[in-house]
Amino acid sequence: MKIYLADLVHTYSVSNNSLLVPLNIGYIKVYAKQEHWDSVDIKLFKHPEKLLEEVYNEKPAIVGLSNYGWNEQLNLKIGQKIREMHPETLIVMGGPNIDSESKYRLEFLKKHNYAHLLVIDGGEEPLSGIISWLRDTRDTSQLPNNIVWSEEERLFSTDLNPVKKQIENIPSPYLSGYLDEFLIAGFVPLLETNRGCPFRCTFCGWGAAAKNKISRFSIDTVLKEISYVGKIAKGATNWVICDANFGMLPRDIEIAKEIRKVKDETGYPYKCHLWLAKNVTERNFQVADILSEMIVPVMAVQSLDDEVLKIIKRDNISKETYIEYNEKFKKIGTETFSELIVPLPGETLETHKNSLKSLFNYGCDIIFSHNLRMLAGTEVNSDKTRETYQFRTRYRLIHGDSGMYKCPDGSEIRAFEYENSLRETNTIKEEELFYLRKIHFLIEMAWNLRVYKPLLELARLYEINPIEIFDKLIQYCKQTDDLNGSGEQFTRFFSDLDEFSHEEWFDSAESIETYFYKPENFEKLINQKFDKLNILYTVILLRDYKNTFDTAFKLAMASFNKIPEEILENVSNYTFALFPALETKDSSWKTTLKENIHSSTEKTKKLFPFISKSSIEFVEDDTRQRMVDLINTRGQTLSKVLNMSEFGALSLRDLKMSIKKEYAYGDQFRRVATDS
Fold first, then answer.
1. What is the rounded distance in angstroms from the CA atom of residue 396 to the CA atom of residue 410?
2. Residue 338 counted as domain residue
3. Helix (H) or strand (E) holding 622
4. Between these two residues, 654 and 191, which has the higher pLDDT value?
5. Nearest one of 99, 44, 19 to 67, comparing CA atoms
6. What is the mean pLDDT of residues 423-443?
């Protein structure tokens, strides 16, 4: 029996090193092979065109499609095409993007009318049971558990048992060799050591799907997988541990040691991305010590308001614990990441701003804020929650998830993905979210990308929270005669950003589809002319408004009357020189500092050692030159070229200048060599 399993993603404009190994369908394949041996021939797919070509050339008995928020529309178009080519092929859908409420499952099947069966919860046992059913009976009363289907607009199901069984009986798809083709092709390795989450956060499908039950893969198997992946995925710079709470179990220490061993032996991975356990402290610190520079810890606090955390059932980590985490990771030299969601039920403009202020006070290096996405099966997406908190939702693009794919019969499939997100509640209005959108842009540009980070660190040193500075900058938009004559330009920039922010939202799925499936708009979409706002406007700022923003930042900081003029002057000169305007013709220059103020305070000395120098010589390295060329000469937008393998892993941070030489006070003719 020929079976095709697909975890499809939009591959139109991305390279393999941006794609994740399809571990999910790997588990389904290895379990089915264990149960049915050579009676089944199973192939795995990530690329839409490869799947279509195989289906066209040879009719499979079953096609299984994994459904997520980032591939639903792609699955819709691909599934319809497969049904058209082979009506007899059984099409099965599974994955987390299937709602828990019956009426929404029926709506899903009406929309995805090519799908014969839906798999609820884990896919290994149900798919194996479907194989037996298709071979032996085809009587729907004999279908395995956790299967849903529709007939004559009525919903039917077998027994739905959402509690996962132990997973130790599932062999490893890595050790079976079933994922070698993806590892060799450069896909990012995923490692799953356990399944489930003991928490029931209302916005998350992780715990909702697990029903509080944690299942573990054999530790011996996990350790062997790590060693195996290290040998096959040579040169894979990033690994991802996709457990919900890594560090929760004592054995996670042993797992971390094995990853460190692979790193020491091979030099890879450079980074290991993971989600830390929410309520374990000391073990997480041990994991951090072991993985050290590799670790990319995601501390998703979502909010720091106690009442909001109670409402979303997320009060499982204290602020004190977060501070401990943050300080620990800084000591080992890794950047600290944190995420907030806005709006959440009970969240206001002020509570969200206070959460942002707290993260800055803690010194968090990367601060992301996400719109609340209405995920299938989550409590926050239930009719009850929507009504209680008076939710209003709208639709917008998922940037980068679009493409045009050639079918073997000469036709084309066009698809793009969009999300349904919360835009208003009984405690926060949409216009307040548009105000926050400007704040979030300033955080991303000035802090996360480091364009103005030295200045903002100076502000923190003098107890000025960066959010206060961002508020001041937005206020300048109403003072067009200020900013030393640059007020009009400053106002124009934020007016354009605000207009773009409004235009990206649509009131219904139908309206966003109507707009982007217009030929002229779809053409722009697949060429990524509809760019991510943060990338697009950071480039615009650095190209057209850099001097204006330099003036505004300096004036905003001076307005608090807390920072000595000499220190502000020196740190400003240094900061502005690090990220010069993109139109500059010079490849190197010196920044002269006002005077030697290195000994002003111990804090200043520690945070800004450069101010002991008389002048600093900056130089444009090859990476920045290449970035500037991409921005100024390429017809494609920057976000697209950043994903192209020929340019490697470039980011907007690479627009920073390098320090070539420093000239010391008292000996201005003697050069002091420094690291670039």
1. 31
2. yes
3. helix 622-633
4. 191
5. 99
6. 97
Longest dimension (CA), the chain: 91
* CB-based contacts of 68, cutoff 8 Å, min separation 6: 95, 96, 97
Q: Are residues 207 and 69 in the same domain?
A: no
Q: What's the CA dihedral at 298, 299, 302, 303 to 10 degrees?
A: -150
What residues make up the domain containing 352? 188-387
In angstroms, the CA 228 to CA 248 distance is: 24
Sign of CA dihedral 184, 190, 192, 196: negative
> Residue 58: inside a domain, yes or no?
yes
Could you say which DSSP state residue 179 is in? T
Is residue 51 scored above 90 in pLDDT? yes
Domain count, the chain: 2
**Domain identity same for 192 and 148:** no
- Quick one: tokens of 269? 């991975």
Condensed to tens digits (0 to 9), the pLDDT of residues 67-85 reads 998 999 999 999 999 999 9
Dump the DSSP string for 237-291.
-EEEEEEEEETSSTTHHHHHHHHHHHHHHH---SEEEEEE-SS--HHHHHHHHHH
Residues 63, 115 share a domain: yes
Name the pLDDT band for 261 (thresholds 50, 70, 90): very high
**Are residues 51 and 104 located together in one domain of the fold?**
yes
In this structure, the answer to whether residues 229 and 344 fall within a common structural domain is: yes
- Collapsed DSSP state (helix, strand, coil) of residue 370: strand
Task: Count other C-beta atoms under 10 Å from residue 446's C-beta.
Answer: 24
Cβ–Cβ under 8 Å, residues 146 and 158 = yes
Tens-place pLDDT, residues 439-452: 999 999 999 999 99
* pLDDT tier, 208 (very low <50, low <70, confident <90, very high otherwise): low
Look-up of token digits 């894979």: 236
Instruction: Please report where in the chains the tokens 């951090």 appear, as a residue.
Output: 288
- Residue 387 DSSP SS3: helix
Whether 519 maps to a domain, the answer reads: no
**Distance in angstroms between the alpha carbons of the first and the last residue of the chain:** 60
Q: Which two structure tokens, joined as six digits, stand for 264?
A: 């020491």
Predicted TM-score (pTM) of the model is: 0.90
Q: Residue 348: inside a domain, yes or no?
A: yes
Q: Is the pLDDT of residue 570 over 50?
A: yes
Where a domain ends, among 370, 387, 404? 387
Could you tell me the two tokens for 282? Answer: 């000391």
pLDDT band at 418 (very low <50, low <70, confident <90, very high): very high
Nearest to 487 by CA among 556, 436, 435: 556
DSSP label of 165: P
> What are the φ and ψ backbone dihedral angles of 661, each rounded to 5 degrees?
-140, 155
